[in-house]
Structure formats: C-alpha cells, structure tokens
Amino acid sequence: MVAYFNKVTLDFSRLGKPTDNAYIESFNGRVRQECLNQHWFLSLADAQEQIDQWRLDYNENRPHSSLGNQTPVEFAKNSSLARQG
Hints:
Elements: H1 2-5, H2 22-34, H3 44-61, H4 72-84
C-alpha cells in the first residue's frame, strides 16, 4: 500500500526463477546468512538496530568485489576524484 501511494512500481521475479534478479537474491542471501541467522532478536527495536548496524557496515565499510574490492566510500571518493581530474 505504501508503494502504491508513493507511485513505486513493483517488479517481481518469476516464481522459481531466482536468476531473474541475481543481485537482489545474492544480497538477500547475505542479509540472511550474515545478519538474520546470527542474531536472536529480543524485540522489533532490537532487530531494527542490529539490521541497521549490518546495513551500515555493508554499505560503508565492507569491500565489494564489484567495486574492485574497494569500500563504497572509497569507490565514491575515487570516482569523484576521477571526474574532477
């Protein structure tokens, strides 16, 4: 319902076809393996805090092979410098 009111188009993979969106499937697997399966959440607030910590680490501190083994912060900095020079 939130998506509808914000005019977000939902796009679903075909049933039984995880290769339709391999990047998202890979990310979902990482979330489950590295975060959800590692913690016993005591409350909804605790789950939100633990997931937010994982997300921040994933998005800011962790090297990504798709970024040449740079962290997203390093990649953004280097991309910005390349555009300036």
